[in-house]
Amino acid sequence: MELFDLSLLHSTMRMFTPILLAALGGLLCARVGVFNVGLEGLVLIGAFSAIVGNYFTDNLIVAVTVAMLSGMIFSFLLAFMTIQLKANEIVVGIAINFLALGLTTFLLRTIFDVKGAFYDSSMRGLPRVDVPLLSDIPAVGVLFQSQTPLVYVALALPFVLYFFLYKTVAGFRLLSVGYNQAAANSLGIRTNAIKYGALGLSGLLCGLAGAQLSLGQVTMFSEGMTAGRGFVALVATMLGQSHPFGVLGASFLFGLADAISTRLQSISIPTQLTSMLPYILTLLVMFFVRGRGVETNYSNEQSSR
Amino acid sequence: MRNEQIQTILQLTIAITIGAVVGAIAMIVSGAPVITTYIQMWNGAFGNFYLFSSTLANATPILLIALGVGIAFRAGVFNLGGEGQMVLAAVTASLVAIYLPGPGFVKVLAAITTGFLVGGGLSMLAGWMESRFQIQLIISTLLLNYIVVLFASYLVSFPFQDRTGSAALSQTAMLDPAARLPKLFTGMTVHWGFVIALLLAVVLYVMLKHTSFGYDIMMSGKNASFAFYGGVSKTKMMLHSMLISGGLAGLAGVFEVLGSQYRFVDGSLTDPGYAWSGIMAALLAKSHPLAIVFASLFLGALHTGSLGLERNTDVPLEIANVIKATLILFITAKFSITWWQRRKKAGVSTSGTV
Amino acid sequence: MSERILMKNVTKKYGDFYANNEITFSLQDAEIHAIIGENGAGKTTLMRILYGLEEQTSGSLYVNGKPVRFSSPTEAIKRGIGMVHQHFMLFPHLTVAENIVIGHEPSSAGLFNRKKAVSQVKELAASYKMTIDPTKKVKHCSVGEQQRIEILKVLYQGAETIILDEPTAVLTPHEVKGLMDTLKLLATSGKSIIIITHKLKEVMACANRITVLRNGEVTGSRHVDETSEDELATLMVGRDLKEVPPRAAQNGATHLEVKNVVVGEKGEKPTLHHVSLQVKQGEIVGIAGVSGNGQSELIQAITGLIPIESGDVTMDGESVNELTVYERRQKGISHIPEDRYQWGIAKSASVAENALMGYQYIDAYQSVRGVINRRRFRPLVTKWIEQFAIKTNSLQQQIDQLSGGNIQKLVVARELGHESSFLIAAEPTRGVDIGAMERIHEALIERRNEGASILLVSSELSEIRTLSDRIVVMFEGKIVGELSRDEATEEKISILMAGGTVHA
């Protein structure tokens, strides 16, 4: 089997979607000056909620909505803790990750009465659809065939975010909060409201990322199924310099690594070694990222408490 | 200083209260009566001497990792790599204890030393990447966790797998009985590792409080520029504190292998979430080495208590993780009666000549 | 002319401390009114009340005769009051135009019309004869330009009254003149201006009226043509200044030498271009210059906090270039840092812990190697506290509960306590009251008379002139002139500071 072919790119598209969605969420946080270590947990919450929504309503739209809302609720929790209660954002981020892991396993036991993973053959995953015009392009058109709608949503989002951040007044003010919150405050800009908005939206995107994980690729939930993708997304945000297109590129890179890693498993290399690939790549990429990858008045921040 | 202490106690009380309330809600969700369930939990952790010794055994790796995380915190460094450092140290230490020729105590000492150095070395690698290339330590240690845990799993699934048994489990061969850490009481789970961990807590306390190295660590954590200005080398502080931090995490893994499991079993250190509990203990105790002892016992008790629940009630043991996470969520929150007033004033805080 | 602003019997209490006590202050239309006073006199507090950043404990505010009370700057801005802070509130990554219009962006359907913003800013700047490029990023703007941006921002928001807090502290003398012209132009076009400062010369040059504060109270209010610099100085200080101690004649050998030091580009800051200077034993060399012209880099290069690209730093002829900060301190370099909060202390540590920095490795304060003996160290700190009259409850008090002046005195005492042969004193009296300033000056002269070499960096010309035996002037990372104590007049230094040349 060839290592690189169109089907690899096709699976890259599928696998980079959750990373991209979460990384765009990370972008929104970074742009209002929040270094969100909790992306991982938010995605996990989304993945679990999507399954719960799907199982109980058998309606995919409801399932995805539930995922978005729960991601948002937990993101608001993070916002409340850091903005209102001035808690350390890294500690809160870690706590969110842990809470997500604890809650999902706890609820897996209480709701579905299973340990480890939940799968029900009666559940439907997200439908596979083609994009009308793009899928007709020769050769690369196959990339836009039979993907979940979330893949296309994710692809469109960087453009939407770019327009929002750099063309609208609201986006301009959001950026100003991250650049210099004290200055924005002194102008009467409602910085806290903007931070809540950005974090809420970020949670929503993470919820979507989770839905793609649990309903798009497979139709199941397993404990800790995010497997560090939230952290990879955080690095994608940093590598992409918190710019929508930069993040798009960085996420694609990590999605590709994911896809290659999966591909390699089929050619009798121990899974442990192939699974390392995305993490090693991410770590190597860190050598090209300076600081937290966003311009602020407070650069040179140490990773201190 | 007074105010700070009151603030700390207030924060701790509120965090524990909220944790208990969330725990209660979780119990109600599982359809269990709250008070009796909490009593069951208490009994699970302290009900008899055997259970108490299990709590101590469980607290041992948490305590060691927490001490390490605490030292790094004090130096202003967020070492989230405890898991990887523990696992890599445990797998190398078990290989050393199995394959190094020589009498038992040599194996034990060699395993402990290698474990400390391997854990410390891995942690120093992340420290070096931050001080040399400004690679965010929080992220690099997290990523290293995934890499190292997979690597250890590979080692015991392929080259060093124990093939003596019938089932091909991912684990090493058993340790020689002579190369094991003795138990404190026969028939009980707690081993000498716990005593060593307690001693280390005292050593670290004295070191932080009374030595110039400890002073340098504290000042680096409080204001790195100030320490640098005063002659403290940034790189040295980073590397030394990470060496100790990772080394202690390594010891946690080594003692689990030498004192409890007698072999390295894939997933046996990561599944109970020792490393994360260690980070929590350090946070709960505000990195104070002696307070960390109590925080670790508390978290260890939560774990054994939840095992008791699992045995005796319908409440799943995962409830412990929900309670722990809630605690950590609130532990750094700055509660004060007037926080909403501050919100108004936080409007603009410009400095100037006052 | 009618009264635009009236602050009547305004009092602001922090605990038992009166920051403002029954202050009455008025501002006419088209008037430039200066508020002067020493550090801690209450000028800034009064203005923060007027701008809605603080609420007064008692007293009332009137704008155009109507009583008002502000609980946030937004309300003050609505009443036409704007403020230019001492530390600029700008977004370095945004353009000039974006910085000016932010909060009131020209837009249609939620879309930010950047073109319109640029043209509006151009128009506004032109109408007040200010030159500025609206499309430039603020991080590429000089300090003078940044201040113009701040003023334009306030004007764009529709302010009729503009408060400027210490606007000249960071400007070159040439830029100061430009600012004065702008302010006068603004006043003639009907704006009212309040300027907070402690520089009497500038006050006399531009203000219509002057109100003097001391210890939170008004000690006098004068029209500019019925007062003099001397009278204002007396009103400000309330007593005659102490004479600095006499300078003993010294004739020492060169102790510290900086040879051709180059420090590379770091961010937007100026670099050091082939800087050379010597400091002899028993000599204070003052470095004059507007801050940000390479002084910080020079200090950091000497103390080992930043690496140098080429050149050499020697002590008694021996290079210290390869040494670490610690080794240089051991060689006899001590250092009063320019920013005490960034470099000089750890805010959350106690007085005792902060005092210990630099002494933790000294054998005399250790029981065994590596173990600190705090009992032996304590008498030393107690001595400093007495010597410098540092007000603290106990050695265990958290240091950020002390006032800025007391913190600075502790830092100075700690660094002088090493009795090192070479001392860097960077802005040694920034933000401290007169008593603390006098004591610090006295201590520096004493150290000099004992034979130590001192390199003084200060943006206060008066301080440089009071203390220095020799004065070098830095401009854009170069040393542009050197003057002896006798030939250094304020005019000559000012010309050099702005990059001009002086013919001896």
Q: Would you kindly provide a written description of the structure presented here, covering whatever features stand out?
A:
The complex is a heterotrimer of chains A (305), B (354) and C (504). Chain A has 305 residues and is an all-alpha fold. Chain A has a single domain, classed as ABC transporter involved in vitamin B12 uptake, BtuC, CATH 1.10.3470. In chain A, 67% of the residues lie in helices and 2% in strands. A two-stranded antiparallel ribbon of chain A has the order 1-2. The radius of gyration of chain A is 19 Å and the shape is globular. Chain A starts with 5 loop residues before the first helix and ends in a 20-residue tail after the last helix. The C terminus of chain A is likely disordered. Chain B is mainly α and 354 residues long. Chain B has a domain of 231 residues. In chain B, helix 3 packs parallel to helix 7, helix 4 runs antiparallel to helix 5 and helix 7 packs antiparallel against helix 12. The C terminus of chain B is likely disordered. By secondary structure, chain C is α/β, with parallel strands linked by helices. Chain C has 17 helices and 22 strands. The chains are: A mainly alpha (305), B mainly alpha (354), C alpha/beta (504). Chains A and B meet through helix 3, helix 4, helix 7, helix 9 and helix 11 of A and helix 5, helix 6, helix 11 and helix 13 of B.
